[in-house]
Design brief:
With 452 residues, the chain is of the alpha/beta class. Helices cover 37% and strands 21% of the residues.
Length: 452
């Protein structure tokens, strides 16, 4: 693998969207009222629901302690009496969706995210999932997955969730070095991760994912190599190797270790080292931050160009309908996006009052839909056919940028299509940003994390 130059890293290490949606959230027009959202859900279900089913993302925000690197929407508490009132709100929200669907829906998948889903007891989680399953038709190839904290994911959690259909688990590892773990307030020994990974497989889980992060305080190439040696011993089926997003203005706890963070070049060296180690260990690069063993469905989807991307990242699920339940959860029903109330109390209040929990959203017009297909194709497959001519006229803002990317060896293009080179994969967010009409306003990108 060819190393990236310092000049390219510095040039393109700018704030950029991750394109889990198009347009990105800061550009939403916020033109989605409860009645328009209902119509969008029904329209999407009529077009896609019966064939592809729907997927659910369920946000479980509670954590017992703060991991200082974390940029997720979370609520820190040790009070487990919060569990059932929140579960009741989730079940009520789901019932509200069922009431607007024309038939008993097919369920293509569920993902439990957080926060820390395993903050909740096995019994609470079982009550929630059994309630959801009661009024759906679970598809034969449905994918049920959850995020588990190695320190509190018990045999009872794994067994209870497996019993209601879960076969995939993702463990947030981040790094195995003790100095790094202490700095980010997430200490979890290798032996704990080894135990819970082995336990999951013995119960019957057929997919284990590890989340790892590069760019954390005190990380070096040597400590990262040691982390990957430990990871290779456990050989998870999938690995998400994320770039640490340093946003202390939004997450003040990150200031506690600011002076120990690697610089741009050191951070990129960490990524390149990790990528080399992953390839040496037999993992295939799926796309932005994601790797999988060749036999994994993600790798197969990459090779067959059937990979998809949504707010949960890369997925093999073909469903164009993703319903988000819980505070701050985002829904994508192809024709529109919507996000729920961010604060737990506000979310529970409006749901239990029988009102809509949506606080913002976006209705996609024809141009949005074409650009969405084009950009997501680039991010999933590293190539895409040009959309209609009016979208990319000779005077478009992107032409000069693409010429520069081409000269730098980051992409190739002709009259039919654009293709990202192997060298350019690291800069796919920058390439998409250059093509994105919404990104003309140079003030807006500061809302995003850096690309490198």
């Amino acid at each position: 693998m060819q190393s990236l130059s310092t000049e390219l890293i510095q040039k393109y290490n700018v704030p950029a969207p991750r394109y889990t949606s198009y347009p990105p959230v800061p550009f939403w027009k916020n033109d989605v009222s409860p009645s328009l959202w209902k119509k969008a859900v029904q329209k999407a279900y009529t077009h896609f629901g019966d064939e592809e089913g729907i997927s659910l993302y369920i946000h479980l925000p509670y954590c017992e302690s703060l991991c200082t690197y974390c940029g997720c929407n979370k609520r820190i508490t040790k009070n487990h009496l919060t569990e059932m009132p929140y579960i009741s709100s989730l079940m009520k929200e789901w019932d509200n969706y069922l009431s607007i669907l024309p038939s008993k829906p097919k369920l293509a998948g569920i993902h439990l995210g957080g926060g820390t889903p395993t903050f909740f007891s096995p019994a609470s989680l079982s009550i929630l999932i059994r309630h959801i399953r009661r009024n759906v038709r679970v598809m034969h190839d449905a994918a049920f997955s959850f995020e588990g904290h190695p320190n509190n994911t018990t045999q009872e959690h794994l067994a209870a969730l497996y019993e209601v259909g879960f076969t995939r688990v993702s463990f947030g590892i981040q790094d195995f070095d003790l100095t790094v773990q202490r700095a980010i307030h997430r200490v979890q020994p290798f032996e704990v991760v080894e135990k819970v990974t082995t336990l999951a497989r013995s119960i019957g889980y057929d997919s284990v994912n590890f989340d790892l992060i590069y760019g954390l305080p005190h990380q070096t190439v040597e400590t990262l190599s040691d982390t990957f040696d430990k990871v290779s011993q456990l050989q998870p089926d999938r690995i998400a190797f994320y770039s640490y997003a340093h946003l202390p203005s939004a997450f003040p706890a990150q200031r506690s270790y600011e002076k120990y963070l690697p610089n741009e070049n050191e951070k990129r060296a960490l990524y390149e080292k990790g990528k080399r180690l992953l390839k040496h260990a037999g993992y295939m690069e799926i796309g932005m931050d994601h790797f999988a063993l060749p036999s994994d469905p993600l790798s197969v989807a990459k090779q067959t160009r059937s990979l998809h991307r949504n707010f949960m990242g890369y997925t093999t699920l073909p469903s164009k309908i993703l319903i988000g339940l819980g505070n701050s959860a985002i829904s994508d029903v192809f024709f529109a996006y919507a996000q729920n109330e961010k604060e737990v109390e506000s979310y529970k209040k409006v749901i239990l009052e029988g009102k809509s929990s949506i606080i913002k959203g976006h209705l996609l017009d024809e141009t949005d839909l074409k650009m969405k297909a084009f950009i997501l194709d680039l991010i999933c497959n590293n190539q895409a056919s040009w959309p209609d001519k009016p979208l990319f006229s000779a005077e478009s803002h992107w032409k000069e940028a693409l010429s520069t990317f081409k000269e730098e060896g980051l992409l190739r293009y002709d009259a039919q299509r654009l293709q990202v080179t192997e060298r350019g994969v690291a800069f796919v967010r920058n390439i998409c940003m250059a093509l994105d009409p919404y990104m003309n306003d140079t003030a807006v990108p500061q809302r995003f994390s850096n690309a490198i």
